[in-house]
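Researcher: Good morning. I'm working through a list of sequences from a screen, and I'd like to move beyond sequence-only analysis. For each chain I'm collecting a predicted structure so we can compare shapes side by side. This is the next one on the list. No need for commentary yet; just the structure.
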Amino acid sequence: MEEPGVRQRKKAATGSSHGHETGSDAKSGSAFPKVYVLLAAVLVLALYNFLALVKRPLNQFLGAPTRHLPGVRTNYVPTFTVDEAKQDAVVEAFKVRKLERDAMGDDEYHPISHAGSNLTKAGGIGIPAWVADKLSFERDGNLNTFETTIRVLGGLLSAYHLSGEDPVFLEKAEELGSRILPAFETESGLPLSLINLALREGVPDKDNSGFISTAEASTLQLEFRYLAYLTDEDTYWEKPEKVMAVLRASETPSGLASIFVDSKMGRYQTSSIRLGSRGDSYYEYLLINQTELVYREMYDTAMTGIHTHLVQRGLSGQLLYTAELNPQRTQNGEIGWRLVPKQDHLVCFLGGSLMLGATTSGALVHNVSIPPRTDELTEQGERDWLTGVELINTCMATHDTQTGLAPEIAHFRILGDGVDNSVAPADWYIKGARPNAPPPFDARYILRPETVESIFIAFRLTGDPKYRDYGWAIFQAIEKHCRIPTGGYASVINVDQVPVEYDDKMETFLMSETLKYLYLLFADSSVLPLNEYVFNTEGHPLPVFNPTIRTGFS
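Model: Good morning. Structure tokens for this chain:
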């Protein structure tokens, strides 16, 4: 894949100037050999670089005044006590009693028709299901390798830990893991998009010409690593780790990944570069695997690439967002890249992820303050923190709709976009939305969790009650516009239409992520602390552990 030819925008300098004066009385006349002048210059330069390197830790040690991060309030006292009233309201939302009657063991629930459905004709694999007696993986149908791993395998492993290590969950997890492994049996070692659990065979996705999405290929390590740790079976570690070695070898200097990979050649395909669908969790899992130096390097490079090529600002309110890069043929037949001001709701995971990365990968000290101080973060950490804060603000701005719910996709205004100012707001809009016209697909809200996930992380890292206010506003909008009176929640077809029209489907991530993160937002900080747990991309908490195997690539 060619490196995107995007002009880097000029950026304001961060941090203070390092223009030191040496105060030397040395003179370079004939009585003083020039070699000593040169030597003195080298020593001064070395001292300058050393001081620049240690400036922040040294200031902290000497008690020098520290700078608060811009955008972080200083006039509040961080508090992490439980908000019982709001937490109880979220607990009530979990109690979809008719789901058990109408769809127990099915993969999906339809709250309006009171029915369940499965992902294959062979039957369900019980994504929200009971386990001990009826959960079966003997399903002769093609299931998505990625979804099955993050939802079912991740859920079983999380249940094993949180249940006090009930062996039934580990037994089922190991059985499922062994059935998924054949998906990795390709020429390159990259997994096929689909897996037949009964036949134990990987299946290519014909809809994508046999290519696999980058997010799906690279978001399997956490679950299989933990399974390897619990079972002492190295193969569960080695096969998913080879995926990252292959992607590392195909990496561009920017660290950005296109959204499709060739499973035969093990190379990125010329396709869109974005942080939304088919790209999102690749970046998320680079942060989760920070115990390995190679992952930290990949993460740091990718975050710099995001800031260099994708981070943009809206016209009117200067909302910070991440754009997409789409390949296109130039007149001379070469591949060029077009920047598109489009941000999926899925991208809203990035705000919290950047803030978390700033306090880990971007930290100068082991235990960062709440909220962090400038002298505790590297320049990259400070950059990522501020971008994360602004991205959350932008994601909250997309909730400024008739329902208070955010659309599936938001577009941002750019100069010369030709958008009718009487139809589109000054900063962001839903592409294709017109008064008295059928709503575009972009206008849907399908109960997605990404914004509340970032809000939860931001609250844990700052203690700022405004994040609880954000989460409560979103929860109230869900209760008002998505709740079905007879039980359950449905997707909304148009977030800018009241009363709403429903799509008869309750996505599984409502319970595994959206409501879970809202519950944790109103819990006290001792519940699943971020320094002891990581959340897989489906919201299943897994304990931080010290692996007994090391990554075999660099």
